Amino acid sequence: MSRPRVRAAIRWLCTLAKRVNQETLVSVVLTAMALTAVSGLAVITAFIFKEGLPLIMKVGLKDFILSSDWHPLEGKFGIFPMVVGSLAVTAGAMVIGLIFGLGGAILLTQFCPPRLVSILKPSIELLAGIPSVVYGFMGVVILVPFIREHIGGPGLSVLAASIVLGIMVLPTVISISVDALQAVPRPYREGSIALGATEWQTTHMVMLRAARSGIVAAVILGMGRAVGETMAVIMVAGNTVALPHSPLDSVRTLTSNIALEMAYAAGDHRKALFATGVTLFVIIMILNTIALRFSRRRAGGTRSR
Amino acid sequence: MHRVTIVLCTAALGAFCLGCGKGKGKAVSVIGSTSVQLFAEMLAEEFNKRQPEGSNAYVEVQGGGSTAGIQAVNNGIAEIGMCSRELKPEETGLTPIPIARDGIAVIVYKDNPVSGLSRAQIRDVFAGKITNWKDVGGSGKPIRLITREEGSGTREAFTHLVMGSSRIAGSAMTQESNGAVRELVIHDPAAIGYMSLGLVGKELKTLTVDGVVPSAADVINGTYPLVRPFLFVVKDTPGEGAQRFIDFVLSDRGQQMLEKEGLVRVK
Amino acid sequence: MRHNPARSQILAITVMWVLAALTIGVLLFIIAFILAHGVPHLTLAFLSEAPRSGGREGGIFPMIVSTLYVTGLAVLIATPIGLGTAIYLTEYTRESRLTAVIRFGADCLAGIPSIIFGLFGFVFFVITLGMGLSVIAGALTLAVMVLPTIIRTSEEAIRAVPRAYREVSYGLGSTRWQMVTRVVLRSALPGICTGVVLSAGRSISETAAVMLTAGSSLTLPRSLFDSSRTLSLHFYTLSREGLSMANAYATASILILAILAINLSAYWLMRRFVAKVS
Asked: Which of A10, A279, C83, C193 is most buried, by the most CB atoms less than 10 A from its CB?
């Protein structure tokens, strides 16, 4: 071979070698990162279950979840009042989240001029950015005294927590519902209008039905957020370990329980808090699975039609 | 584009490392009672000001509750634990160092007509046996109980001094610090709570207990019944920085600062 | 027909506008309330001084530094690892049961209450690993908390890039890494940035998990192993204990302004980037 060709060949080999090396290096680094992330997340899950499950076994699942006797310093670990507290507060929050959230989503997708949409949508996302302690603070300063003076009870109540949480989950509910409504194929809307229906009739008879699975997914994910909120609830719910008999009673949620007792819990008490964590984990897993099933059904359903 | 990113990242890393280098030696970690916390923070502020730059004696104070403080000392994450109650018999291996004495005040809304209760009455109120203000001479509103979390030294001391063997009612609303209890009672006409006497301030009404007004003077001469110690708790021998802080707190200057804030000095 | 469809439409639209107005009204009210009470106290002295008398007087400089350290570190740690994992899952392995399980796990962990991460961080980083209440324990806990979110949003963004882009890139002779960096990541960048900004916002607002890992000391952190108090925790403490409402409002104002700034700059950066690319 002539010299220039040899040099060209060597150069080509070098670049190839460099590229192969770069590829392998990149592969290795990325694999390492993925392994770190996945094993880290797995470690956390394992840790929580390892600390919490043995205590649930020891106390008995039925006694742990259904007993109302929470006296950890005496060895009694019944979390039923907190479970009911979480459920009550979440349910209340979802009522608000559904009404305002769905209404907002319908407005944004069906009845809003595009100019306004470009202002409203970022504003809703801004709502999501406000820290939960600020929401809690506003609840304490404005909502709680209002409830105490004009409605009744101590003010620190299921009602206060529901309203605050409802506002906090709005961005989640709105954005996922908007996605669901926007995913409905245009022919549905156009066909309905062409048949003579008004836009509102189209919305509630066609669009909402078509986007139903996505909206359910939005509500469920909103519930997940509501169940997980801690600080705002500690500030406005009263933290009583007792079953609420009315929305004006004060309650303690599962997350507040962990936050309040985390610092000083030891031994079985700490394990009980991890067990509460396991309960929350399971609840979120169930909610996520349901949400996933609904969003898949939506995607599959509209395509097959 | 890539070069800019690399330069920025290195600069950021460098900034963090610079931050790393400045502190020679670990800070003295003081963890525990929220009753003691505010006073300890002020003492630490004064103490830190007097230390040379980068010394070992840099004090950090945080709350969490008396039991949390004791555990932090046991776990090794704190050198000094703050405690607002006596050590329990099962809390062995720790040395308590009294730094002040404080009263527990029973607080109500400023305009509450009731001005005093007996210890037995307080016990029955908090146990849930007396549920309406009119049963103790007030208006016809239902009594709203405010209590502290179970790991609180103030709650423990209150239970020991007032409740005896009765439990605090399950209907009580739990707050996680003295300040939170105070803020709640300031705004709720039907509420009753208990907190550190040194932190009460002017916006609340304190009840007399068995006829005795809760004041520093009555705490000193022992007539006010609800008194508990403020302790610094250490395990084995404290490090040099921790020892210097303890000495400062027990010195005349430190004790003067505590007295000015409403506590009772021990030295 | 018995009812007039046109009338029910007007009624429905009115109701929805009222609801929307209430929603926006609440948002504007909260921001206006906090800023109105807080901005008058935002002086340069306030931002550069240390707190005195337990936070009742003085400024919030250590809190600003602490927030930058804790949340900055958390995002710096979580973003490369999360992005790398997302790239790995989408471009470097085949779709399998394992990847589906990982995806589900990441989804679940992204939804787990932050207090559980706090509990984990407290027991694992602070006590077991012996870091004590420190900036690094707080940063690691927050990093672990936002990692699933970054993985999921990055993955969604990368998968949204059309297959054609990848095929064209290969067709032009690129290596996989070149294709990933120069084609896929460039298109997916807005989505990835959304995830990172979301995580940064979540880290700044996080209070309970930070309280028990980074601590709540008023002092300036001199190193990564010192304890410190972040802005949101300081606001919580000041307002809860009634130490100084003026300072509380001012702290909250800084928090809100910072979050507004992050969101706005991310929005602006993304628009610039999208304009440049298309």
From this structure: C83
